[in-house]
Amino acid sequence: MVQTAIEPQDFTGLRARRQALDAYWKQSISGYALVRKHSDFIDHHLADSFEKSAPPGEGFALVALGGYGRQELYPFSDIDLMLFYDPAQKDELSPLVDAILYPLWDAGLEVGHGVRTLEECMVDASEDFFFRVAMLDARLIAGSSALFSRLTEMYKTAYIEGKRQEFLDDMLEQRAKRETQYSRHTYLLEPHIKESCGGFRDIQSMVWTAQVVFGLKDLNSLHEAGLLSQEELKKFEEAQDYLVRIRNRLHYLSGRKNDQLFFEHQEEMAEAFGFKNENNMLAVERFMREVYGHMQTVSVTTGLFFEHVLEVSGSEESSKAGKMLEPGIEIRHARIHLSGSESIRSQPKLFMRLFYQAAKTGCPLHFRTRKTITANLDLVDDKLRNSRRTAKLFQAILVSAEPFRVLEEMLDTGFLPSYIPEFSMVASLAQHDVYHVFTVDRHLLQTIAELQKLRQEESTIFAVVDMPHILFLAGLLHDVGKGFGHGHADRGADLARQIGERIGLETDELDTLDFLVRNHLFLSDTALRRDLEDEEFILRCAGLVNTTEKLATLYLLTIADARATGPTVWNEWKGALLLELYLKLALLLDRNDLSGHEQTRGAELGAQWIREKVFELLPDAKEKDFDLFSDDYLLSFPPEVIVQHIVHAKKLEKQDVLFSHEQSQDSWSILVMTKDRPGLLAGIFGILALHNLKVLAAKIFTWADGTAVDTIEVSSTISETYDGQDWETMENELNLVIKQRFGLQHRLSQKLAPVRSKPQGVQQRLAAKVTIDNQASELYSVIEVFSKDRIGILYDITKTLSDFGISVYRARIGSKADQVVDVFYVLDYDGKKIESPAFKNELQQGLLYAVTNE
Amino acid sequence: MKKIEAIIKPFKLDDVKEALNAIGIKGMTVSEVKGYGRQKGHKEIYRGAEYIVDFIPKTKLEIIVEASLVDEIVDTIRNAANTGKIGDGKIFVLPVEEVVRVRTGEKGKEAI
Question: Cys staple from A430: which of A244, A288, A627, A730, with CB 3.0 to 4.6 Å?
């Protein structure tokens, strides 16, 4: 069926406007055709009103301004009108105004109107930038053409001829203002089709400027004048047309003048534009990707145009000769130039060299060089992508002072996605949620910008990073796996490894890159969702991250990523949680790092062997449980005994203390397992003394989860038999001690009073010696106590240590004849070595007192 | 009507939410807050740099319910948020004079 075109006269009066629009929609008239039709419709009815009421003669002209002047009238746009009159006709004015405006108001239209004489026009134009610009698109709808020509001539003479520079300055000022106002997060998520970067204002300001500065009236003439290449023109027109269709539909959907693509409209728009959910990507995300892509085209094209205008308008001198930076590249007026566009075709290595020079000098690429790059991207082939030299330059750019600026130029020119094809999959990729304010490619660049800032703000932590170039590369690539549904971190890590291999990274660099991308959400997930006081868990995290360097790198990446995502993702609150996690892991890794040096390779292998043995004996033990055990613990017991400990430890879920004893060849062996706590060792030794047991040797360990495993070899000082020993009372008392309900101190002093009645002589004091050594172990302070043996001496020593707030992590108790040599591996109350000389001395004196007095 | 305000450890939010869901509480207001009580802030020194955590991040839940439900909800939150360590948080119960649903103008019980 052939549809007949609908004409404005088919509708009676302006009230039928909505009907007319509906009719156009039904005929699938969209884009420019629709705004033109709409404009014609209003023209027709306004001309009608004008003809009916205007007095004969040349006294009046009805003029359309702004968008309506350009015949681009969106469904709910303001209708900018001016009734222009000859002052001699003032008396006739009022009825004519009523006749024109009332029907518009009655039809519920938003009208921007003015009634002006020539003189008033000139005054207003001089005062109001927007009116001055609106006048550029002035169009006569009805009335005297002679009067209208007088106005346009006068306007041209006053505001265009000889005023090009002022006009340009105004344009640039407005452009800069828009940039600051509309690049805020809300406008990124929900772009403003008119005012945002890459919106209609950018298009118009380019067209206006071309008109005023060069006398070029449309895009085609820009192309003919060589300002836009055929390719650029085509892309730009496509973008423009797309934006027109969006704006039309947006007005239609919102039922009002709304130019912002709000969240609630995006899905409906996507459907209206025929997008479907496919390949793990929502229709709305596909749609928004197109929108961002087109806005990017507009933004880049108009940006290049204004750079051109600035250069030729003489605000920057162009006569001065440039300075050669290297063959084919020169610097002129603080811009990097390609010296001849031919050379890039014969020497594709110049691509990366240009960006490298931009990074090195801190100067941007000249717009013409940027255009040359874009026009020659077909030269970026596998050979260039696999070039080691080019890769080295790329890595140098990543760690330059301002990698963000250079990478942004690489993205805007299209070089980045050509060089790293994996990157093109996330170009303009939108994520339909309230967290991600940037498209993925922009987010990745923003991450680089944040890393750049963190280099200063967190310089202490940054100093720990051993591979800064890998950190920046991970920043650039961490989300490269997006766009295919869940698991983007793993997919991204695989892609990053592939890219890393291509640019010739070493194995350890590849591993770190892989690790960073794969785990880039690990710290933030953990900080928010896990109990940071769960020591076992923190220990496992430390095991995963493994080194302080990697931790610092991952931490900085995490912050940069979060900050670059959007304001809802990063705030001080989350920062505090993340910092807490970081510090916990950092302090732990710092210590573990050092303990690694203490062990010889042989011991490590031995420990590994025992791990395997234990694993065989205990098939349902999980691999990670072994992280609890230090190598020296594993090396101190036969595998069977370790298995016993593990089995016992399960019981600790139900009871506080596990106490067992057995008879071995020439001594008795006691095992105490419980949660480590201050004073535990003193408590155990105290109970032993109270029960007439002398410590022959002891192995004191604390698992990483805080379980103390103390094995003590004892013998009876009163020659009691194993069976005669009152183990049951002993266990009860030990339980009471641990619950702090047992007065060990007074019971012991009562018990030992007779033995200790002899005053300790000077000789005794001389025999005693206490040393505190911070060199022997890199992890702990080692305290050695030499003294004459006596009952309760271990209690006194460990009680003293506990009074000083010192934790014992390992101990070796030995006695030869009646001399004891006890070695304690300890850390102070804050978990640090005993460094302060004053404290060292105090502790030494305290221990000496303990072993020589009661 | 009562308002229940609970300050909990952030990582416990999911547990508490689930537990409340299970007893039929579907709506609540959640905010990120900072403060300190017995679990004081602390200072960490790492590689010569000082890191001061003076306020500790916590999560605040606010729920408005009929008075008869208060005990059950308070117990549920307490159980779900409990780790047995310092800093597990606090629960406050406050009287509420009136509730109005903005959209419909409903008041009292209907508006909860």
Answer: A288
Domain at B32, CATH number: 3.30.70.120
Whether residue A583 and residue B9 make contact (CB cut-off 8 A), yes or no, is no
What are phi and psi for residue A368, nearest 5 degrees?
A: -70, -35
CB neighbours of residue B54 within 10 Å: 11
pTM: 0.66
Distance from the Cα of B10 to chain A's closest Cα (Å) equals 6
Helix (H, G, I), strand (E, B) or coil at A138: coil
Min Cα–Cα distance to chain A from B27, Å: 20
Alpha carbon of B108: minimum distance to chain A alpha carbons (Å): 31
Q: Which residue of B has its CA nearest to A587?
A: B46
Judge contact between A26 and A18, C-beta under 8 A: no
A830 in B contact zone (CB under 8 Å): no
Q: How far is CA A138 from the centre of its chain?
A: 48
Report all structural domains of chain A as residue ranges with CATH numbers, in order of start. Answer: 8-161 (1.10.357.170), 164-319 (1.20.120.330), 424-598 (1.10.3210), 652-852 (3.30.70.260)
Identify the band that residue A366 occupies on the pLDDT scale cut at 50, 70 and 90.
Answer: very high
For every residue of chain B, which 3-state class applies, written as one string? Answer: CEEEEEEECHHHHHHHHHHHHHCCCCCCEEEEEEECCCCCCEEEEECCEEEEECCEEEEEEEEEECHHHHHHHHHHHHHHHCCCCCCCEEEEEEECCCCECCCCCCEHHHHC
The minimal CB distance from B83 to the residues A531, A576, A583 is found for A531
Which tens digit of pLDDT belongs to each residue from A504-552?
A: 999 999 999 999 999 999 998 888 888 887 777 787 788 888 889 999 9
Give the pLDDT confidence score for residue A668 in this predicted structure. 86
User: Are the beta carbons of B34 and A576 separated by less than 8 Å?
Assistant: yes
